[in-house]
């Protein structure tokens, strides 16, 4: 965008260096305040009210979480302090919150799995990283297998099998979200294509699936998946208790994803389809190389917000007795040994921070993608 | 909305190509679906539970999610408690190993659904045996492991001496329990009003009472006592003297599997019989060579109880050796050797003034 | 499809090489396998249910429920039937959802417009609200609100007394009950008459404005009619209303209407959470209105408030309404999280206690899901109809 890329210079001489902006245009702080905070009397009143409100909220937060909080010590110090957070509680419960009841001697496997996942995700998301397609392949194909082997264990590899009822805490939350994210996007694309198919029955099936799933509360689906499923299908078709909510969450978000993808497909000009067909490109090649790359790019914000919704929805598995992160916080906070005036608030604050960091991180990344793509269009 | 209709303005050739590719894929999906559907129809509706347990090598047992003394997981996921030990006894009987149990924590409202659907093999919950549960839920109770009654817990500061003074109270209860129903009966028959605050989760109920949302916490007295362990200010509350109901708590199994019902029933009865006959975890091996024919039959040295139940000859020894007799299990988890320190009361043997009584083993 | 037929060769062969024929065959196969799957599940379920003695009928509907529900908008007591318990659940779900929708819409529009405010601090506070609230799971927020609401309030004996016989404690907000006497109906009729007058006046005022260009003071006339007429009648018939003030008797306040903490927490949680999404929808909707519209309005001399109300918002609504509909549906579905904090909504009462008592899991879940689907359907239809009013009239 810095002028030189647009046209080749007419003359061989180099361009003049850019001039500094005239000094009068950069506003002084006083001008800025007048313009942005006190432009009208009403605006001034609002400024004062909102400053007071923001300052009060910030003060409440900081004094609870930092200034008045108990940082060292144990149960007694926390019981004696009704004002601030009780961080020793979180420190003691930290392992439980991360792993649930996963056996202590095997927890390195969880750490390793998450570390590999983190490296792959960083590789995938870092825009200037080399060979991102390899990362994608590893993450979407190899990683699920590795994660399964590591987490569940294979006796022949000297990794004892850990029953999924023992899994818990942040492990479950991350597992649910990653599995949901990996499967909901392809399923959503298939459903969206099915909904736009010209075979009326295929279309009807997809529409009914999408609309029914979007019309019912997730917890009722979870309830049926985990407490009623053996009633509907024979034993040998009933998957593991942890797997069922995973499938449920992937199917559930795929319906939402389908609607996001459909919006993207609708936004692609008809000419793109027609041009592809005129060139004799087959349906799948057309979708893979022409339509979907464009359609998915347009709806990146929608896809990411579906991911964020999925991440937040993992909290609902608590209804079927699976100990995800929030459920672990709930269990920890009712521990009578730690009964204290601020234990609940501390637990919720910590949980809130953890969820917020993940979700906010995702939404920031999608915004930066959006900006990068918008730049790409302009130049 | 610019909905596109691909069929329009389209050359036929492309259409053919497009459908061909989609078709092969759909064929694969179709094959899978048809296979699944046929499998569904042909499959046998109810396989014998005991065979499933043996095949899986593990007993899936539904228990309370967290009731101190009855069923409580620690931070490492190890379950302890009175009903937990019953599950372990069944696992010892069927699989010969009391550790081969998979515990599924269930809220009271979900427990019968999980059992009737087949999600769990046996329900060992603080569930009350009632006629309607036996007849209309598709489940059967296999006995009574704890005789209990519903009571009320109030704060001392309220100065309430009797349940008859509870007019107008807000009462915290767990959803899907007999507690909910008994309250309605009790307050109606005493012409009092009340208002319930119900939660699915027992922990939430106790927490709500503890934080002052209700005046009264009502549950089986065993649960009330266990709840004290979860309260910040347990000493501020008392349990009122009245018991307003009979609450025989017992294990339950699905209907239509008599064999499994027998296993569940006799595992419990063998534990009671062992206490009656003085067979304990320590002396069970010596007792095998006892002269008492009742003991010999109990431990499989004589008679054919094990074979008739489809279990091994050593099943009762496994149960007693790995888990203990009824009295030992009681004392260890909720009785005098536990923090709860409950009296045996109605749960003493019949010979000591209680109700626990095992039919003859012969 | 007609285009394809025209384009295709006129001689139609019924061979497998015909794409149309193959399409039909594939669809038939798909239909058959789905049907087989459905039949298979139905057969399996029925045989399982029969083998295990689970009730297959809806006979429980008219049996006595025998449990208490603390918050009911329709008559219910412990002798009522399961069917009545179902309706209590439905009404409670609709009640909290509709109130939540109203509150979330108001809050969401305010925050969304505030995010675009030229005032730096206002827009930053609004942005922080959105970024914090929408990135934290709703369940966590509900648990927080429930605990925050309960913790902050005193026990009944130490109730906070508000003017007008209103009490606030950890059992809820207790307000005086209105008791009506003979003549109260007349006041109601007067209000109805005033409402009809208002609508008529509004039509008249519009027509008058179209004709003469003069604006009539519609708001003031309406307010005067809506308040004045019923008030006059009220005084004429001699105040046929009395208030029953709640009294502390025994454990709790007797008499009066009660707003329970569970309801308050659910309502606050749902509204605050959904408002953060609505705010984003409103912001992007307003930003999508071309800037020239604002400039033109300003050039015509419209004040900023009027520009927003008469020029920007009506155009933005067209973009806002479809995503707004799905937020409304989300709010309604999210109200089922009531089970976690003990508010007796449909899932808590019907898919919870009733299912447990009757054991009719399949029937109860089928009914519950149908109710949610019906609510979605009705709400989508209503919003679509509303949207059509705002759609651009193409010439």
List its salient traits.
heterotrimer, A: 379 residues, mainly alpha, 69% helix, C: 395 residues, alpha+beta, MetI-like fold, 4-stranded antiparallel sheet, two-stranded antiparallel sheet, 8 strands, 7% strand, globular, disordered N terminus
Describe this structure in words.
Chain A: Keywords: Cell membrane, Membrane, Transmembrane, Transmembrane helix, Transport. Chain A: Residues 170-359 form the ABC transmembrane type-1 domain. Chain A: The chain crosses the membrane at residues 36-58, 108-126, 133-154, 166-193, 205-225, 245-265, 286-311, 347-365. Chain A: It comes from Mesorhizobium muleiense. The complex is a heterotrimer of chains A (379), B (362) and C (395). Chain A has a domain at 104-161. Chain A is built from 15 helices and no strands. Chain A has helices spanning 29-37, 41-67, 75-80, 87-99, 107-125, 132-152, 170-195, 200-215, 218-232, 243-267, 270-278, 283-298, 300-313, 325-333, 343-378. Chain B is α/β, with parallel strands linked by helices and 362 residues long. In chain B, the strands form five sheets. Chain B has a five-stranded mixed sheet with strand order 10-9-11-8-12, with helices on both faces. Chain B has a three-stranded parallel sheet with strand order 4-1-5. Mean pLDDT of chain B is 85; it is low at 1-23 and 33-46. Chain B has helices at 12-42, 49-56, 82-95, 108-117, 131-136, 178-189, 202-210, 221-228, 258-276, 284-287, 293-298, 305-308, 315-322, 326-333, and strands at 59-64, 72-73, 79-80, 101-106, 122-123, 139-141, 146-148, 150-155, 169-174, 194-199, 216-220, 237-239, 247-249, 252-254. Chain B starts with 11 loop residues before the first helix and ends in a 29-residue tail after the last helix. Chain B has two domains: 49-147 and 249-352, Periplasmic binding protein-like II (D-Maltodextrin-Binding Protein, domain 2, 3-Layer(aba) Sandwich), CATH 3.40.190; 150-245, Periplasmic binding protein-like II (D-Maltodextrin-Binding Protein, domain 2), CATH 3.40.190. Chain C has 395 residues and is an alpha+beta fold. Among the domains of chain C are: 2-51; 82-155 and 259-390, MetI-like (MetI-like fold, Orthogonal Bundle). In chain C, the strands form three sheets. Chain C has a four-stranded antiparallel sheet with strand order 1-2-3-8. Chain C is globular, with a radius of gyration of 28 Å. Chain C starts with a helix and ends in a 5-residue tail after the last helix. At the B-C interface, helix 1, helix 4, helix 6 and strand 10 of B face helix 1, helix 2, helix 5, helix 11 and helix 12 of C.
């Amino acid at each position: 965008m810095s002028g030189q890329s647009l046209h080749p210079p007419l003359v061989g001489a180099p361009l003049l260096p850019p001039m500094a902006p005239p000094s009068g245009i950069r506003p002084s702080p006083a001008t800025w305040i007048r313009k942005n905070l006190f432009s009208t009397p009403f605006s001034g009143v609002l400024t004062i009210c909102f400053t007071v409100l923001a300052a009060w909220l910030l003060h409440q937060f900081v004094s609870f979480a930092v200034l008045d909080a108990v940082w060292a010590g144990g149960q007694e110090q926390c019981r004696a302090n009704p004002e601030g957070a009780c961080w020793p509680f979180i420190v003691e419960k930290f392992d439980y919150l991360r792993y649930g009841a996963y056996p202590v001697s095997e927890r390195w496997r969880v750490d390793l799995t998450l570390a590999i996942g983190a490296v792959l995700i960083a590789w995938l998301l870092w825009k200037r990283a080399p060979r991102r397609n390899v990362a994608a392949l590893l993450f979407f194909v190899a990683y699920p297998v590795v994660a399964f082997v590591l987490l569940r264990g294979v006796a022949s590899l000297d990794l004892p099998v850990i029953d999924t009822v023992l899994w818990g805490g942040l492990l479950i939350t991350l597992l649910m979200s990653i599995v949901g994210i990996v499967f909901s996007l392809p399923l959503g694309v298939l459903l969206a294509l099915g909904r736009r198919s010209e075979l009326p029955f295929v279309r009807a099936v997809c529409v009914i699936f999408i609309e029914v799933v979007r019309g019912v509360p997730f917890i009722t689906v979870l309830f049926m998946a985990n407490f009623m499923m053996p009633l509907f299908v024979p034993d040998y078709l009933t998957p593991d208790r942890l797997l069922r909510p995973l499938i449920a969450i992937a199917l559930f978000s795929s319906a939402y994803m389908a609607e996001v993808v459909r919006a993207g497909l609708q936004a692609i000009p008809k000419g793109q389809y027609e041009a592809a067909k005129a060139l004799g490109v087959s349906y799948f090649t057309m979708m893979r190389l022409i339509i979907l790359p464009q359609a998915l790019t347009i709806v990146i914000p929608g896809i990411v917000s579906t991911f964020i919704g999925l991440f937040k929805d993992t909290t609902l598995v608590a209804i079927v007795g699976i100990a995800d992160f929030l459920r672990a916080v709930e269990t920890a906070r009712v521990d009578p040994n730690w009964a204290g005036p601020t234990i609940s608030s501390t637990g919720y604050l910590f949980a809130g921070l953890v969820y917020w960091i993940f979700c906010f991180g995702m939404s920031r990344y999608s915004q930066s993608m959006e900006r990068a793509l918008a730049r790409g269009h302009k130049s | 909305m610019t909905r596109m209709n691909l069929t329009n303005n389209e050359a036929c050739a492309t259409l053919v190509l497009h459908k061909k590719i989609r078709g092969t894929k759909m064929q694969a999906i179709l094959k899978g679906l048809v296979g699944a559907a046929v499998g569904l129809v042909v499959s046998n509706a109810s396989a014998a539970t005991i065979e499933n347990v043996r095949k899986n090598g593990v007993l899936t047992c539904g228990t309370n999610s967290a009731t101190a003394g009855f069923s409580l997981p620690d931070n490492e996921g190890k379950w302890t408690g009175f009903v937990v030990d019953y599950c372990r006894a069944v696992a010892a009987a069927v699989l010969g190993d009391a550790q081969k149990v998979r515990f599924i924590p269930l809220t009271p409202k979900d427990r019968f659904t999980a059992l009737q659907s087949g999600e769990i093999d046996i329900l060992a919950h603080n569930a009350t045996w009632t006629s309607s549960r036996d007849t209309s839920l598709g489940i059967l109770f296999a006995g009574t492991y704890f005789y209990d009654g519903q009571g009320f817990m109030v704060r001392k500061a309220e100065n309430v001496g009797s349940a008859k003074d509870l007019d107008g109270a807000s009462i915290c209860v767990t959803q899907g329990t007999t507690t909910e129903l008994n309250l309605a009966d009790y307050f109606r028959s005493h012409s009092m009003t009340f208002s319930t605050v119900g939660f699915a989760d027992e922990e939430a109920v106790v927490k709500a009472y503890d934080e002052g949302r209700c005046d009264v916490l009502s549950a089986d007295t065993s649960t009330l006592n266990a709840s004290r362990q979860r309260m910040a200010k347990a000493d501020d509350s008392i349990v009122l003297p009245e018991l307003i109901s009979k609450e025989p708590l017992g294990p339950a199994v699905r209907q239509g599997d008599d064999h499994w019902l027998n296993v569940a029933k006799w595992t419990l009865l063998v534990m009671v019989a062992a206490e009656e006959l003085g067979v304990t975890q320590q002396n069970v091996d010596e007792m095998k060579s006892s002269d008492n024919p009742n003991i010999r039959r109990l431990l499989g040295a004589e008679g054919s109880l094990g074979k008739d139940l489809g279990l091994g000859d050593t099943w009762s020894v496994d149960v007693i050796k790995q888990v203990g007799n009824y009295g030992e299990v009681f004392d260890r988890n909720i009785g005098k050797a536990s923090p709860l320190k409950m009296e045996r009361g109605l749960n003493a043997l019949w010979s000591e003034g209680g109700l626990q009584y095992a039919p003859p083993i012969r | 499809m007609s285009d394809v037929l025209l384009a295709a060769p006129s001689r139609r062969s019924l061979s497998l090489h015909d794409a149309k024929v193959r399409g039909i065959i594939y669809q038939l196969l798909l239909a058959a396998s789905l049907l087989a799957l459905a039949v298979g599940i139905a057969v399996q379920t029925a045989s399982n249910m029969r083998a295990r003695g689970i009730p297959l009928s809806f006979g429980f509907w008219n049996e006595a429920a025998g449990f208490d529900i603390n918050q009911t908008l329709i008559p219910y007591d412990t002798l009522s039937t399961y069917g009545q318990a179902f309706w209590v659940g439905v009404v409670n779900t609709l009640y909290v959802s509709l109130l939540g929708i109203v509150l979330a819409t108001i809050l969401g529009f305010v925050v969304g417009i505030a995010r675009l405010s030229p005032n730096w601090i206002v827009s930053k506070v609004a942005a922080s609200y959105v970024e914090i609230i929408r990135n934290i799971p709703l369940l966590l927020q509900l648990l927080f609100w429930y605990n925050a609401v309960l913790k902050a309030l005193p026990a009944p004996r130490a109730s906070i007394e508000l003017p007008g016989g209103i009490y606030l404690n950890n059992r809820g907000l207790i307000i005086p009950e209105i008791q009506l006497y003979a003549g109260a109906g007349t006041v109601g009729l007067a209000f109805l008459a005033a409402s009809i007058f208002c609508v008529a006046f509004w039509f008249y005022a519009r027509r008058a404005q179209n004709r003469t260009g003069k604006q009539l003071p519609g708001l003031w006339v309406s307010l005067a009619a809506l308040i004045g007429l019923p008030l006059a009648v009220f005084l004429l018939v001699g105040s046929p209303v009395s208030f029953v003030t709640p009294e502390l008797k025994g454990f709790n306040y007797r008499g009066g209407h009660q707003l329970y903490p569970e309801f308050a927490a659910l309502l606050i949680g749902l509204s605050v959470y959904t408002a953060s999404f609505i705010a984003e929808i409103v912001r992007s909707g307003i930003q999508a209105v071309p800037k020239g519209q604002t400039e033109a309005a300003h050039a015509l001399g419209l004040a900023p408030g009027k520009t927003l109300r008469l020029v920007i918002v009506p155009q933005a609504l067209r973009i806002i309404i479809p995503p707004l509909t799905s937020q409304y549906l989300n709010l309604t579905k999210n109200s089922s999280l009531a089970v976690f904090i003990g508010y007796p909504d449909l899932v808590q009462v019907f898919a919870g206690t009733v299912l447990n008592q009757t054991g009719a899991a399949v029937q109860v879940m089928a009914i519950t899901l149908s109710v949610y689907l019906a609510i979605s359907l009705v709400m989508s239809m209503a919003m679509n109809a509303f949207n059509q009013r705002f759609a651009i009239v193409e010439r």
